[in-house]
Design goal:
Helices cover 43% and strands 19% of the residues. The protein has eleven helices and ten strands. A hairpin with a 4-residue loop joins β1 (2-7) and β2. The structure holds 5'-O-[(R)-(carboxyoxy)(hydroxy)phosphoryl]adenosine and zinc ion.
């Protein structure tokens, strides 16, 4: 089965074609970063309007790139969680195309897409796995038995990891989107000049909290003076990044220990972070646990993960053109009737 995937949950218009036998045939993305940058964050109404402008040309081009014009067997779109106006654009186009082509259509859970992204890579893991899902909106540790069987082991009780990166970047005067800019600045930072608290490491359990860490950086920045020089900003960024990385790594170690799982997949935008990958790989080598990451472009939002998740759903039970929604707990999903894991 050949599936067209459409992702419009936030500030990326992304499309892809995934073929059950040949794998990913083509993917394209238009980032709205330049559009939202003057506002310091995503403006939902502008996001929706830009998806309307970009999506159809992207779909035409991806079908050409994939050599798949006239040979799509199903259409998948992100149904949530995300910005409702933005989601509606992708859902409406997907359902219209499916109706015109006389093929089935399925609404995909954005986080299920992220979670399955490591299966786009040549060295895909076998189930079951532990998944660390670290995006702009979510920080989750999930025991994944198979596609659609998700048990949440831990989650953030306040800010998501990516959100913390973005907020700290903002207070250090970095442009939106903050995560990659903060990681780049941290490269020049001195490792132990600022040592920030490791929230929630001193107590049992697998939940996370990042808002106190953000406040600690704010106070340290204030104490360092009104006009921070570049080195001090880099040192603050480095201290913050080290704290987030050590919390995420230690919680993964605990979750692996508690569940006995021997494979870890890392997904979501923060999964592109170089220092996080290095720390997790070191832990994996130490514990003899296999670690799987999607390539950085498939850690952040993309159409390929939606086409792949849609393929599982459409092959599994035909899928469901479900209405879009801002919130949608991932553990409310059901596995498809037939599994292709
Ligand atoms: O998964 P994603 O593209 O979108 C959501 O579903 O939220 O994640 C975006 C988040 C943003 O908060 C962004 O700052 C963060 O991922 N991010 C990073 C890096 N690349 C993206 N955070 C830290 N280091 C990076 N290299
Ligand atoms: Zn995402």
């Amino acid at each position: 089965m050949r599936v067209l995937g459409i992702e419009t949950s936030c500030d990326e218009s992304a499309v892809a074609v995934y073929d059950g036998e040949r794998g990913l045939l083509a993917h394209l993305l238009h980032s709205q970063v330049a559009l939202h940058a003057p506002y310091g964050g995503v403006v939902p109404e502008l996001a929706s309007r830009d998806h309307i402008r970009r999506l159809l040309p992207l779909v035409r081009q991806v079908l050409l790139d994939a050599g798949a014009t006239g040979s799509i067997d199903g259409v998948a779109y992100t149904a949530g969680p995300g910005l409702v106006g933005a989601l509606l654009v992708g859902a409406t186009l997907a359902q219209s195309l499916a109706l015109a082509w006389g093929v089935p259509c399925v609404g995909v859970h954005h986080l299920e897409g992220h979670l399955l992204a490591p299966w786009l890579e040549p060295r895909a893991p076998a189930f079951p796995v532990l998944a660390l899902l670290v995006s702009g909106g979510h920080t989750l540790l999930v025991a994944v038995e198979s596609v659609g069987r998700y048990r949440i082991l831990g989650e953030s009780i306040d800010d998501a990891a990516g959100e913390a990166f973005d907020k700290v970047a903002k207070l250090l005067g970095l442009p939106y989107p903050g995560g990659p800019a903060l990681a780049a600045l941290a490269e020049a930072g001195v490792p132990d000049r600022f040592r920030f608290p490791r929230p929630m490491l001193d107590r049992p359990g697998l939940d996370f909290s990042f808002s106190g860490l953000k406040t600690a950086v704010l106070y340290a920045a204030r104490e360092a003076g009104a006009d921070l020089d570049r080195q001090t900003r880099a040192d603050l960024a480095r201290g913050f990044e080290e704290a987030v990385v050590s919390v995420l790594t230690e919680k993964c170690r605990r979750a692996l220990d508690q569940t006995g799982l021997r494979r870890l997949v890392v997904a979501g935008g923060v999964g592109a972070n170089r220092r996080l990958r290095a720390a997790l790989s070191e832990m994996g080598a130490h514990l003899n646990v296999d670690i799987h990451y999607p390539r950085p472009a498939f850690c952040t939002d993309n159409g390929a993960m939606i086409a792949l998740a849609g393929h599982h759903r459409l092959c599994g039970d035909g899928g469901d053109a479900t209405p879009v929604r801002a919130r949608w707990p991932i553990d409310s999903l059901q596995p498809p009737a037939r599994s292709f894991g």
